[in-house]
Design goal:
By secondary structure, the chain is an alpha+beta fold. The protein has two domains: 2-101, Alpha-Beta Plaits (2-Layer Sandwich), CATH 3.30.70; 113-158, Roll (SH3 type barrels), CATH 2.30.30. Helices cover 15% and strands 45% of the residues. The chain contains three helices and 14 strands. It has helices at residues 13-22, 65-68, 89-98; strands at residues 2-8, 26-28, 31-38, 41-48, 53-58, 74-77, 79-80, 83-84, 86-87, 113-116, 125-131, 136-143, 146-153, 157-158. Strands 1, 2, 5, 6 and 9 form a five-stranded antiparallel sheet that branches. It is elongated. The mean pLDDT is 86.
Length: 159
């Protein structure tokens, strides 16, 4: 059995996964927890590690190949020269092993340069330090020849 990549339709990865699993095809659709700031609030969301793709484990002579392209949510099998591109087992295993250690993306990290977009410090460059609750953050700004620690609303921070 060999791993192959499938491209799925936009926002239909879960649908494609469900339909493939209903056909008893071994699938791997890695997702990670991502932190984003939306409307000034931090939110956690589960997102695909490889947007637009999922992986299937099939034999070359498996009759399921004929069903793949007509599976709901699937666009195509990733191929080169009309031959499906095989993915080494150790690559998939490495992705599985390291899923937990993937760093979260989208959220602010300590030491990251930001700009304040509203309030009394509008337009001032700052350095993000930490979150202070759900709606505020602590940043460092250069004010009066000194670095000052200031609490600002998360909505005031621009990347």
């Amino acid at each position: 059995m060999t791993w192959y990549a499938l491209q799925h339709k936009p926002a239909q990865g879960d649908r494609a996964l469900a339909h493939l699993q209903n056909q008893d095809i071994a699938c791997f659709y890695p997702k990670i927890q991502v932190e984003k700031i939306k409307a000034g609030k931090r939110t956690q969301k589960l997102e695909p590690l490889f947007p637009g793709y999922l992986f299937v484990n099939l034999e070359q002579a498996d009759p399921s190949w004929a069903k793949l392209r007509s599976t709901r949510g699937v666009i195509r099998v990733v191929s080169f020269s009309s031959k499906p591109a095989a993915i080494a087992d150790d690559v998939i295993q490495h992705v599985k092993d390291s899923l937990d250690s993937v760093t979260q993306q989208g959220g602010l990290k300590s030491g990251e340069a930001v700009q304040l977009g509203e309030g009394p410090f509008e337009g001032i460059n700052a350095v993000f330090q930490a979150y202070d609750g759900e709606e505020r953050a602590i940043v460092l700004i250069n004010f009066m020849q000194k670095q000052q620690s200031v609490k600002v609303p998360i909505s005031a921070i621009r990347h």
